[in-house]
Design goal:
The chain has 17 helices and 25 strands. It folds into 4 domains: 2-152, 2-Layer Sandwich (Alpha-D-Glucose-1,6-Bisphosphate, Chain A, domain 4), CATH 3.30.530; 220-287, N-terminal domain of phosphatidylinositol transfer protein sec14p (Helicase, Ruva Protein, domain 3, Orthogonal Bundle), CATH 1.10.8; 290-483, CRAL-TRIO lipid binding domain (Phosphatidylinositol Transfer Protein Sec14p, 3-Layer(aba) Sandwich); 502-550 and 569-619 and 642-658, Sandwich (Jelly Rolls). The strands form 5 sheets. The protein has an 8-stranded antiparallel sheet with strand order 1-2-3-4-5-6-8-7, with helices on one face. A 5-stranded mixed sheet has the order 9-10-11-12-13, with helices on one face. The chain has a 5-stranded mixed sheet with strand order 14-24-16-22-25. It has 694 residues and is α+β, with helices and mostly antiparallel strands. Keywords: Cytoplasm, Golgi apparatus, Immunity, Innate immunity, Phosphoprotein, Signal transduction inhibitor. This is SEC14-like protein 1. One of its GO terms (biological process) is innate immune response. InterPro entries: CRAL-TRIO_dom, CRAL-TRIO_dom_sf, CRAL/TRIO_N_dom, CRAL/TRIO_N_dom_sf, GOLD_dom, GOLD_dom_sf, PRELI/MSF1_dom, SEC14/CRAL-TRIO_domain. It holds the Pfam family PRELI.
Length: 694
């Protein structure tokens, strides 16, 4: 069928003609190599052809047919402009290793443009366009000639066999593989394709079963019931990967449904799927994930304030998970539990999802391998863009993407507010392209109209908070009480260790002994961000800049105060002999922060050098009319034992060019919290200073 494309092919208009340059046939007729010079009329702009000085381009194509090995290799390269452009293409038809009645097709090409009269990018686009159209037409052309052969009465080609004398000689020396009989080529040949790889199933009803193990093929009823539609190649990939696991993997072998998820995640590339599957199996064993549902009980804080839960199923039978993200205090959960417990809870949700998929497969009598997630963003505000919280979210996404591929069937995002694009900009680069295609986003009440929620979920189970009649038992979330917050040290002592250290640090601030953090900036216009909580006492927050590097930090644990600072350190960087305005300068107005406040902010640096973040003890001012302190000030000072304050802080430096969504998005992330953060303040002075610096 392939040979019929020559000397010219009406289905390929640009293929004008071809001439045979050389031809070779082996004596036993097993090898046939033919080399042709092909003339192509490339679909390129007339001006480009005129500049190049050619109307046609010529390619050399070499076809090598090996009837003994049952392979056809096709190599092609350009003759025209070979000193400017190098094009190489390789195609191959081979017999499938697991089923000799299947023919595999594979195609690859490379393009290297050294120079082309200043039109390099145009030539690249033309080449890509031509190659893409050829790939799409390749299957159509081979099917056309297969059908043409059938119409002429040629329904099979006898298998090549060695000459009689060779055959007798070989039979006395070693056993030869049995030759299967000729088979009919059905009309449906080459109907399946995946990327640029195709399977031609040429097994006829009269063919004998292929010799091999009983696991060479999967039972058709089993596939239909538990796995869904699979092409012959996909089925083969599953068998081969499962067999490899059985031979090499020590431990529990995952079910076919789970192996299939990893194959789908890598477009059935066995090597890539095997790599990520092995990494995931190691991770599961290391962290005992298989037993998480039986051995781990979520803390009460999660049960009360994590606004998510399972809720019936969608119209396709997929389990439905509802997450009221807008009502969730992400910062409070991270501060009360730490990232470790939050990650473990998300993993338990995914494990429960896998279990529910298996149950629904049995209930509905068809394969269900993924679930639907409904995310309600009503109430989402800038507090949810709290930098450490977003960072924790990205780490969770990374773990889930690596270990639970192809488990999300559909994600419905409802009531997306105007702040949503900022969050999406931060999160989307970490989400796999295949997963991103499953997202459906509705703003406002759009989900109630055509193409909305009713297309995916039955009316009877739409949750009450979305205007439905079904009572949803998902927790309503709300603010996590600060009394449940824990220090970095307490979180570090947790025995759950799926991640490393916590992102927060603790510091003690004394009267006369501030705590200072050094940040070195190499590139101007970098962004320093901070987030801290004043756990005890009142402090003044400052930012300074110096061209000089401070001396190595001096830690003050006992020092002049004769007090230890358990659960926090005290570092002083600014030398006593330094003078403000000469050795260092203030780049932000001082910010007074009261006990219990949470402060977030950012500063766009104007110069490279050394920046010092300082938390200083806040002395109570005297009364304006007299030198006597006010009663309120005296009472407040009594609460600060030994003139000591305590803060928990987190800082990060990011390049402004790396922050997607522009600097205005970053600035707004600390200016405009809703009622969710009644006790939270933002550093407005820092905001205005950032604007000036920028």
């Amino acid at each position: 069928a392939y040979e019929r494309r020559f000397p010219t092919c009406p289905l390929i208009p640009m293929f004008v003609a071809s001439d045979t340059i050389s031809e070779y046939k082996s004596e036993d007729k097993a090898i046939h190599v033919i080399e042709r010079r092909c003339k192509l009329d490339i679909d390129a702009p007339r001006l480009l052809k005129k500049i190049a000085g050619v109307d046609y381009v010529y390619f050399i194509q070499k076809n090598s047919l090996n009837r003994r090995e049952r392979t056809l290799h096709i190599e092609a390269y350009n003759e025209t402009f070979s000193n400017r452009v190098i094009i190489n293409e390789h195609c191959s038809y081979t017999v499938h290793p697991d089923n000799e009645d299947w023919t595999c097709f594979e195609q690859s090409a490379s393009l290297d443009i050294k120079s082309f009269f200043g039109f390099e990018s145009t030539v690249e686009k033309i080449a890509m366009k031509q190659y893409t159209s050829n790939i799409k037409k390749g299957k159509e052309i081979i099917e056309y000639y297969l059908k043409q052969l059938e119409e002429e009465g040629i329904t099979f080609i006898p298998r090549w066999a060695p000459p009689v004398e060779c055959k007798l000689e070989s039979s006395t020396s070693h056993a030869r593989r049995p030759v299967s009989p000729a088979v009919n080529i059905p009309d449906s040949a080459t109907k399946e394709a995946l990327n640029n790889k195709e399977i031609l199933n040429t097994s006829g009803s009269t063919s004998e079963p292929t010799a091999g193990t009983p696991d060479d093929k999967l039972d058709a009823d089993y596939i239909k019931r538990y796995l869904g539609d699979l092409t012959p190649m996909q089925e083969s990939c599953l068998i081969r990967l499962r067999q490899w696991l059985q031979e090499t993997h020590k431990g529990k072998i995952p079910k076919d449904e789970h192996i299939l998820r990893f194959l789908r995640a890598r477009d059935f590339n066995i090597d890539k799927a095997r790599e990520i599957l092995c990494q995931s199996l190691t991770w599961r064993k290391q962290h005992q994930v298989d037993y998480i549902l039986d051995t781990w009980n979520p803390p009460q804080v999660l049960q009360d304030y994590y606004a998510g839960g399972w809720h019936h199923h969608d119209k396709d039978g997929r389990p439905l998970y509802v997450l009221r993200l807008g009502q969730m205090d992400t910062k409070g959960l991270v501060r009360a539990l730490g990232e470790e417990a939050l990650l473990r809870y998300v993993l338990s949700i995914n494990e429960e999802g896998l279990r529910r998929c298996e149950e629904n497969t049995k209930v509905f009598g068809r394969p269900i391998s993924s679930w639907t997630c409904l995310v309600d963003l009503e109430g989402l505000n800038m507090r949810h863009l709290w930098r450490p919280g977003v960072k924790a979210l990205l780490r969770i996404i990374e773990v889930v993407e690596a270990n639970y591929p192809e488990t999300l069937g559909r994600l419905l995002i409802l009531r997306a507010p105007r702040v949503f694009p900022v969050l999406w900009t931060l999160v989307s680069p970490f989400i796999d392209d295949n997963t991103r295609k499953k997202f459906l986003i509705y703003a406002g009440n759009d989900y109630q109209g055509p193409g909305g929620l009713l297309d995916y979920i039955d009316k009877e189970i739409i949750p009450d908070f979305l205007g439905g009649e079904c009572m949803c038992e998902v927790p309503e979330g709300g603010l996590v009480p600060k009394s449940l917050y824990r220090t970095a040290e307490e979180l570090e002592n947790e025995d759950i260790k799926l991640w490393t250290e916590t992102i927060y640090q603790s510091a003690s601030v004394f009267k006369g002994a501030p705590h200072e953090v050094l940040i070195q900036i190499v590139d101007a216009s970098s962004v320093i961000t901070w987030d801290f909580d004043v756990c005890k006492g009142d402090i003044v927050f400052n930012i300074f800049h110096s061209k000089r590097a401070p001396q190595p930090p001096k830690k003050d644990s006992l020092g002049a105060h004769s007090i230890t600072s358990p659960g926090g350190n005290n570092v002083q960087l600014i030398d006593k002999v330094w003078q403000l305005g000469r050795d260092y300068s203030m780049v932000e107005s001082p910010l007074i922060c009261k006990e219990g406040e949470s402060v977030q902010g950012s500063h766009v640096t104007r110069w490279p050098g050394f920046y010092i973040l300082q938390w200083k003890f806040h002395s109570m001012p005297a009364c304006a009319t007299t030198n006597l302190p006010r009663v309120d000030d005296v009472l407040a000072s009594l609460q600060v034992s030994s003139h000591k304050c305590k803060v928990m802080y987190y800082t990060e430096v990011i390049g402004s060019e790396d922050f997607r969504g522009s600097m205005t998005s970053l600035e707004s992330s600390h200016s405009g919290f809703s009622q969710l953060s009644a006790a939270t303040t933002s550093s407005s002075q820092s905001h205005s200073s950032s604007m000036i610096s920028r």
